[in-house]
Amino acid sequence: MSGDVLSPGAGLVSGDAWASSAESRPALGALLRGWRDRALLTQEQLAARAGLDVRTIRRLEADALLRRPRSKSVRLLAEALGLDAAEVSVLTHCASGPPPTPPRPRRLPAGSASGSAPTPPPTPWQPPTGSASGTPLTPPTPRQLPADVAGFVGREQELGVLGRLDRAETAVTAIDGMAGAGKTALALHAAHRLAPRFPDGDLFVDLHGFTCGKAPADPRDTLARVLGALGVHEESIPAHLDDRAALYRSVLAGRRMLIVLDNAADETQVRPLLPGTGGCLTLITSRRRLVGLDGARMVSLHVLPLADAIALFTGAAGAERVASAAMEALAELVRRCGLLPLAIRLAAARLRTHPAWTVPHLLARLEERQRLLGELRIGRHSVTAALDLSYRELDPAERRAYRLLGLHANAAIAHAANAHAGVVGAGVADAGVGVGGADIAVDSAAVLLGTSVPRASALLDRLLEVNLLREPVLGRYRFHALVRAHAAEMAVAQEPAVAQEPVITQEPTMAQEPEADRRAESPGRGRPYASAQTPSSFPLGSVKWNRRPPGNS
Questions:
Q1: Closest to 200 (Cα-Cα) out of 234, 231, 174
Q2: Between 92 and 486, residue with greater pLDDT
Q3: What is the DSSP string of 366-388?
Q4: What H or E segment, with its residue span, contains residue 118?
């Protein structure tokens, strides 16, 4: 450093001043503390790196040693702290003096041999300094956002919520929704809109909470990656998770950054990655409702409105491929996809990759209930694969509840549709392929699962928390039709004996819904169900067992 040494917490001090006299010699403890803070080490970490007892480090920093430190200890400390030649000279000079009496740290202005201002406490973190001049380097400005989603449609209400920032506080927004609802697409689209407000950059981290073939990201490893992107050298990153999280908050303090944490598993994975002070906006996506994040705004995604769903399909398939299709056919097709963005994009991809197909042909394929989920796939991407990831996160009791509730909701829909086919028309034979379906009451679920009402309620709440169920009306739970179909398929695959057992033995009780809800949530051929005989809401309380309820296996 060409004759000048960077005094921790102070300005540049002339090397001659350090050696001028014993009185001008700074306290060894203050020097060590400052260099240790600069290296982002705890006392324990410094002791381990130097091969010394942590009590020795504490006594050195407290100027409590009764004799001078040994030259070997000084050399080990210098190596552990990464000191340059000038700093090693200062450390050796200070350590060779008489054991200090009460420390009197002094802050010397640059070029001066004496001064009276006390040294302020060292700051926890400072940007790296140039090796020659000691001047702070400009912190990096990461720009990590992936490209915006092509053909993004709708979600204006949600985008409005995400755009309302409170600059006085750290803003955290958690976006939740079922698999395929478009959470990542929304977060990225919003982030690109908001990025100009954050001059210090943006971070994007895939936490792999629900990724096929990958375990959820460890927050400790994630922090190491993020700290590296923020300019912290690898050797300066602490080992312990809490220390890394504290350093991360220190580095972000005073910056205005946008942080996207995508595909989170749960609150525990996310919490260490949240900034500690104002100025940053954090957008989180997860299939779970992260209600354990104090102060976070919650944005829950549902299926698309019909008009937006048609626009998404048209954009994804190509306007030329749908130009000759009737609007009624397009509406029915996206209803068959459950108005779910992932399913709509997959159906559009199927049409685009089969030039001989037409919209009516694709619609006919989707109308076959037994092959519906099989049609909604392209390459490695499918609705089934997305729902499989959610299913695997459930414990055995929750999986069983998911299978049985889906299986018998499917049976209820089929029974109701067949019973009313003469009234409603042929289109109802596939009732419930849209969003609507049989409602599930807690007491009915308890009978179906062979358990108590409190236990059934807890299982329903768990499925609700991970967005495999929704609660459109207080105390009434409902599957999305594609989720229900998936649950029924899992039941057939894993409990074939139960799946083949006849269940419904009496006419279901009908519950009338508002017409607007029926039109949005029913998959009929572009028209609502007959108002007095709507099979889209069927309380499972009207189900009777032909023999016995399923076993508890």
A1: 231
A2: 486
A3: HT-GGGHHHHSEETTEEHHHHHH
A4: strand 117-118
Is residue 365 within 8 A of residue 357, CB to CB? The reply is no
Q: How much is the pTM?
A: 0.66
Residue with tokens 């400072």: 126
CA neighbours within 13 Å on the CB side: how many for 515? 6
Q: Please answer whether residues 407 and 498 qualify as being in contact, where contact means their C-beta atoms are separated by less than 8 angstroms.
A: yes
Q: 176: which strand partners?
A: 286, 300
Highest mean pLDDT out of 261-270, 416-425, 426-435, 534-543: 261-270
Reported confidence tier of residue 417, pLDDT bands at 50, 70, 90: low
Partners of 202 in the β-ladder: 143, 258
Nearest to 136 by CA among 123, 149, 153, 117: 123
Q: How far is CA 249 from the centre of its chain?
A: 18
Burial of 482 (0-12, 13-18, 19+ CB in 10 A): buried
Nearest of 209, 218, 219, 217 to residue 288 by alpha carbon: 209
DSSP codes of every residue in 331-377: HHHHHHTTT-HHHHHHHHHHHHH-TT--HHHHHHHHT-GGGHHHHSE
pLDDT for position 72: 84
Residue 285 dihedral angles phi and psi, to the nearest 5°: -120, 145
Whether 519 contacts 547, CB under 8 Å:
no
CB contact at 8 A, 135 and 297: no
Q: What is the pLDDT of residues 354-377, one digit of tens each?
A: 999 999 999 989 887 667 888 898
The answer to which of 234-248, 304-318, 430-444 has the lowest mean pLDDT is 430-444
Handedness of CA 394, 398, 401, 405 (dihedral sign): negative
Helix, coil or strand: residue 206: strand
Q: Supply the angle between the helices 219-229 and 241-252 in degrees, to the nearest 10.
A: 30
Nearest to 92 by CA among 147, 28, 169, 164: 28
Task: Copy the structure tokens of residue 491.
Answer: 């039941």
- 166 neighbors 120 (Cβ within 8 angstroms): no
Provide the H-helix boundaries in 367-452. Answer: 372-375, 383-392, 396-419, 421-424, 442-449
Instruction: State what percent of residues in the chain have pLDDT above 70.
Output: 70
Q: Say how far apart CA 441 and CA 77 lie, in whole Å.
A: 68
Q: Assess whether pLDDT exceeds 70 at residue 66.
A: no
Quickly tell me which residue has 């289109």 as its tokens.
Answer: 427
